[in-house]
Amino acid sequence: MVIAAVASWVLPGLGHLLIGERTRGIIFIVVVTLTFWTGVAIGGVKNTVSPADRTLWFAGQICAGGHSLLALACGAAVGTPQETGRHPAMLIGYGRTEEVSVVYTAIAGMLNILIILDVLVRAERRSLPMAAGPPPGPDAKRRPRTG
Q1: pLDDT tens-digit profile of 53-63?
Q2: What is the dihedral angle through the alpha carbons of 127, 132, 138, 141, rounded to the nearest 10 degrees?
Q3: CA 53, CA 57: separation in Å to the nearest integer?
Q4: Which of 20, 21, 59, 121 is deepest in the core (most CB within 10 A)?
Q5: Whether the model pTM is above 0.70
Q6: How big is the chain by its Cα radius of gyration, in Å?
Q7: Residue 137 within any structural domain of the chain
Q8: Distances from the Cα of 61 to the Cα of 89, 103, 126, angstroms
Q9: Can you give the pLDDT at residue 140?
Q10: What range defines the domain where residue 53 resides?
Q11: 51, 138, 144, 145, 147 from 141: Cα distances, Å
């Protein structure tokens, strides 16, 4: 269970692949990856994921795991406007685009929390021994007690 949860943090959906739920895992990988990197594409890699500038938003973004770490590394690799000699607007998003990008990436992180919880429940269900049959429903007839 722990391995599946950590794998889901590193790459959302990977834990589902590890426990054998291929379709669900692929859907989660695609959805979270597209949501996160669309946000980065809107606002730019330099300032979308920034723990120094947006501490509370970063708490949500870091839940996207490997995506957040990769975005941080890419942002650090891209020089500042002064270092590159490029206009700041070419490297940094401003105004509404910056807000939208931060929200997209934080939503991807929050989605991954749900994915991690889902993989924990599914992994636990797989590890429990199967009962003799399904539990009786409300319409099941009760047998009289003997003895």
Answers
A1: 888 999 999 99
A2: 180
A3: 9
A4: 21
A5: yes
A6: 22
A7: no
A8: 23, 9, 30
A9: 54
A10: 2-127
A11: 60, 8, 10, 12, 19
